[in-house]
Task: inverse folding
């Protein structure tokens, strides 16, 4: 049989990956390749964040775009596999098939589940074996020890062993919109800092990363005023939301822009490694929109939504890069506080430094300072007209305006009390 070329191996590997992913969509597939282990596509993106390993792009015939990969040497498996499992991931280790016939024989080995099964088997079998050896090696003697004989003790051990074997899985404390079962939800106290408490749970047998609890939530939970489902909603909201389709994460994507459709060529997550940057060590979203490349620090909520697949890349682009893209929807969240006359909003160029600035004249309540606006906001206001003067003023001056309104109200109340 002719030896396979690297090109043929890569094509076969991607076919095997896609087939295994359809069978095990919730598992991260870890393929052994010579002296290395490799992860691909969405698994590579997730592993890159958890393990802090750089991703590489691999060009494979038949794939619409370059395949993202993460690889590490085989000796590092004992160190990195526990990290993946502790993050709550289910990991399946796969062997690369030489051909499609061999693929049928390959079965993924889930490390976290197999280790748990082996441990359970040892716990269950050991007492039975001990009892059997005792009866074979020594004749049964009804020697009394207090009020119990050895035979009674052995019978009791057998009953305990049978009870362990007949142990039923714990009933779920809740079932998510995706049909996942939540069990073992509880609060526990930190050993290092006794003043800190954490909430955690298992979802379909996977341990979730513990979340530090708010003092009010802890008190409510201890007083049985807050349930596990409520705590799940509070600390793991994206775990409970319906998942969007895998198809929605394939690039490129088209979305409505200020002057026609724009195309999202690429969208992923990475960790900033430039020590000179102020956001060093933080996780960031990266997007390529047409020829423009941009990045932004990702919030914890958005990161969870991305990895739990409950929000589409287009929505994350709109939320994190909407103002840079001059999208009208990005400015809809800004509005002036009630009681502020929009006629008092002024956006003008400052002659002293030639920069565009925004201010608000609130009449007897006073005037705000003049705040410089960014190029993107100026472009949205004057060029694409996707932002209004009121929205720009609200973005830069809401905190100052709220303080001035509160001071005016306090002044009026004090004046009224003096008159009385």
Result:
């Amino acid at each position: 049989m002719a030896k396979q070329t690297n090109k043929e191996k890569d094509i076969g590997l991607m076919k095997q990956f896609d087939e295994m992913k359809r069978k095990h969509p919730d598992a991260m597939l870890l393929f052994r390749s010579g002296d290395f282990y490799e992860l691909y596509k969405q698994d590579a993106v997730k592993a890159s964040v958890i393990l802090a390993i750089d991703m590489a792009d691999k060009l494979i015939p038949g794939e619409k775009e370059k395949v993202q990969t993460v690889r590490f040497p085989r000796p590092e498996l004992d160190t990195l596999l526990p990290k993946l499992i502790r993050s709550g991931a289910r990991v399946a280790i796969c062997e690369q098939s030489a051909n499609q016939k061999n693929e049928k024989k390959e079965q993924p080995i889930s490390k976290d589940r197999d280790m748990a099964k082996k441990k359970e088997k040892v716990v269950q079998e050991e007492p039975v074996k001990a009892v059997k050896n005792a009866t074979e090696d020594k004749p049964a003697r009804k020697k009394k020890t207090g009020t119990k004989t050895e035979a009674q003790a052995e019978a009791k051990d057998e009953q305990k062993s049978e009870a362990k074997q007949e142990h039923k899985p714990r009933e779920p404390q809740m079932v998510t919109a995706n049909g996942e079962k939540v069990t073992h939800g509880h609060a526990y106290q930190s050993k290092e800092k006794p003043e800190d408490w954490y909430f955690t749970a298992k979802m379909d047998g996977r341990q979730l990363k513990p979340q530090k609890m708010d003092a009010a939530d802890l008190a409510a939970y201890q007083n049985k005023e807050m349930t596990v489902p409520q705590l799940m909603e509070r600390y793991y909201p994206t775990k409970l939301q319906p998942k969007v389709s895998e198809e929605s994460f394939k690039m490129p994507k088209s979305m409505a822009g200020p002057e026609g459709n724009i195309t999202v060529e690429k969208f992923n997550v990475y960790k900033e490694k430039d020590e000179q940057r102020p956001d060093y060590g933080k996780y960031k979203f990266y997007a390529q929109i047409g020829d423009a490349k941009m990045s932004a620090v990702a919030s914890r909520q958005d990161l969870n939504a991305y990895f739990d697949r409950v929000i589409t890349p287009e929505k994350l682009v709109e939320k994190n890069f909407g103002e840079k893209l001059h999208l009208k929807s990005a400015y809809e969240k800004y509005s002036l506080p009630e009681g502020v006359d929009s006629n008092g909003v002024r956006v003008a160029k400052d002659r002293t430094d030639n920069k565009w600035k925004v201010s608000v004249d609130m009449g007897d309540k006073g005037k705000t300072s003049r705040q410089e606006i960014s190029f993107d906001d100026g472009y949205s206001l004057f060029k694409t007209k996707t932002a209004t003067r009121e929205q720009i003023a609200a973005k830069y001056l809401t905190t100052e305006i709220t303080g001035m309104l509160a001071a005016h109200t306090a002044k009026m109340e004090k004046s009224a009390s003096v008159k009385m």
Summary: Residues 389-419 form the longest helix (31 residues).
